[in-house]
Amino acid sequence: MKADNLKVLGHFAVRLDGEHVVYFDPFHLKNAPQDGEIILITHEHYDHLSPEDIRKAARADAWIVLPKSCRPAAVKAGLDDRRLLYLSAGEEADVLGVKIEAVPAYNVGKRFHTRDKGWLGYVVTMNGLRYYLAGDTDDNEDVRKVRCDVAVVPVGGTYTMTAEEAAVLVNAIRPKVAVPAHYGDIVGTVEDAERFAKRLDPAIACDFAR
Question: Lower CB count within 10 Å: N or C terminus of the chain?
Fold first, then answer.
């Protein structure tokens, strides 16, 4: 099985096609399709909340979903507050018929993405599947509760899980398909993604989705 209709555009930027066009954390986009109906932002770091890339990805009437704690950053970025939807961990929303569940995303033993900031990953139900986009997180008690068909997880280390840690998490939550991300740009290499793939349970397919 592959991560059908999902493509990693680079770093943690992901495009999901199907019933709607959904982008996650658009960053360093090479073109400006402006066809995104829903844009999900995991947190306010520049490589995840990039106003320039959001405008490249989003239609004029797109909904932009962000953590509640990112409201000041969204206002500073000049995003249209009328099209913004804020969520906290554990909350759900229906956007254009797409179910979006907010999942905590935080580090364990690192200072970059602390739990108190309220930053997020998301589980999106679309195309008859549950897609988990983990955001910048480590393996922790909250992400272990996620149930999904496709999991997109960071593997680059430093600010997030290492390849080995990401594989341990994925083997625990057991999606049908795992997709490595957050490598090859600011941190992490293709070798990290390859190490991640080798450490997955053989029952879980790995799709680089590039």
Answer: N
